């Protein structure tokens, strides 16, 4: 097993699938000649040529809509958004067209498109470039949303997404692109909709996704070392479908839950998870469910404040102690 | 009463009704007698289907929006009659005529309007969302202009697969002001995609005349020049002209893989949808002028009578049969069952409908 970065893992997934299926096409702004705004697609143009790796104009509604149309005829486009924040100019295509076509046609049409790119705050770029739309998009039946936190999951989930016959939106994180981890060379996928227990514990369940998983794992170490608490960390990996069983199983074991996400709190992913726990594991709870999310404001530019706006290790530790009190 | 709109295609009105200047165009001259009769029959079927819909709507059996195609028949008929195996099409919500033209049955079309499980989309799409991918018909789209990138993508797929084909991407005159349409124009030209954008210019977007909505250099199609695309304008009351000029665009798509914008002047006789009382934005006289002088179905009938392809008796038979077919479809739509409560959550995800060894996702995907 090789140790590679999250960025390299994503690239490996695309390379594998480009080799496996001639209908896979990579498309987006700067993905080809420029080698990718974040170098995720570096080298792919050289390896696969301009028919498979396609630079687009700055025209998100146009090229994503084009990808959706092409996918209806069997092409498997993997579209890169420079930021998921830019999906908002293509919202009609992403939601109305990709999300509804199968339903409105009574199941006659499939839309096997993947849209991927970073969806994260914490990079000091202000409100317009820091959106995390996983909850917004996952609230639309017809759409799948995944948020890998590690290189292993990034490769496995992206490969699963490309093979999937429904629209799958992969939300990455620029802050994780350089994170390294063990990733098998051989073919594997991470099935969409299966959460992963990233740390086993007995006293408290933390449910998180995306970079909040990494934050939560660090918090769990401190809670263990300084407070003698054994924390289990459940990484959702997939927002829709949602692995309800893994969440519930953990909560039934620890009887306490803290939900951590980098979204703003209102109607965040964890609002749904909190509802799930109270409706299906109410009697198992020894304390109310708590949440840690970003402070409810547009993303602030000032780096010192942005770091405080988002869930930090300190905030997770403090909130965990409240659940345990 | 608002100022009456300038007629959309004043020159076309000057042509006396009579033999079409395009009858001798090769695509028309080469048509067999049977093919001409079949084309007329299809136009008549669209007309009678739509008129039958009005009655069902008035009986309260059709919900939501109902946008009729009456008056515009020659556009769908002329363009779609030219399509081959690798030619696709997609349109907006005024989509019944296109559906019947590709060969969808009146039953499935009518039953979709009444929300029945026997409808083309099993009652899940409605009037604005007809689909028949087996006939290369990709909808039926409710968001003005939203289908333009999709049509461009279908053309992209055809080209990617190395096929000689195209995608006719229909829209209204109001849609040309949507950003998605401009983005689609740019991509189509930039990447040499075999897409034909067909602007069905009926003069109005809902109650807004073209004059009140659109800045343009003389006609809407000419905007294509800004994207270095070929374009043409067509009298949409003459199905022969529609065929002749669309054939050139198809040739450009098939042989050069290049896009075209076609603006087809046409007219709708009824309100924008059945919800439009049609009282505020145009004069009754204007509608009457078109009905009397430019009716595409009547003009083609006259044309075929003149060519001695059609006799008054045959025409009567065709129209009677179309009416009877629409009546039967209305009964079918009435008597068909509704979808069930369980059907609401089907056809959302391929994976959910095809659970088996090949599916890769797990977990809860439909929530309580
Ligand atoms: C994005 C969007 N805005 C507004 C509407 C409401 N609407 C539906 S049709 C229509 C008029 C469109 O006119 P045109 O493009 O000329 O087509 P026509 O109805 O004449 O065929 C409007 C405003 C819509 N469906 N989608
Ligand atoms: Mg119009």
Description:
The complex is a heterodimer of chains A (325) and B (368). By secondary structure, chain A is α/β, with parallel strands linked by helices. Chain A has helices spanning 6-20, 44-48, 60-72, 91-104, 134-138, 151-163, 211-227, 244-254, 269-280, 303-309, 313-324, and strands at 2-5, 24-28, 53-55, 76-80, 114-118, 144-146, 168-172, 180-183, 196-199, 204-208, 231-235, 238-240, 257-260, 290-292. Chain A starts with a strand and ends with a helix. Chain A folds into two domains: 2-183, Rossmann fold, CATH 3.40.50.970; 196-324, Rossmann fold, CATH 3.40.50. A seven-stranded mixed β-sheet of chain A has the order 3-2-4-5-7-6-12, with helices on both faces. A five-stranded mixed β-sheet of chain A has the order 9-11-10-13-14, with helices on both faces. In chain A, strand 2, helix 2 (44-48) and strand 3 form a beta-alpha-beta unit. The radius of gyration of chain A is 19 Å and the shape is globular. Chain B is 42% helix and 11% strand. Chain B contains 14 helices and eight strands. Chain B has a six-stranded parallel β-sheet, with helices on both faces. Chain B is α/β, with parallel strands linked by helices. Chain B has one domain (39-353): Rossmann fold (3-Layer(aba) Sandwich). The chains are: A alpha/beta (325), B alpha/beta (368). Chains A and B meet through helix 3 and helix 4 of A and strand 2, helix 7, helix 8 and helix 14 of B. Bound molecules: thiamine diphosphate (TPP) and magnesium ion (MG). Magnesium ion (MG) is lined by residues 172-174, 202, 204-205 of chain B.
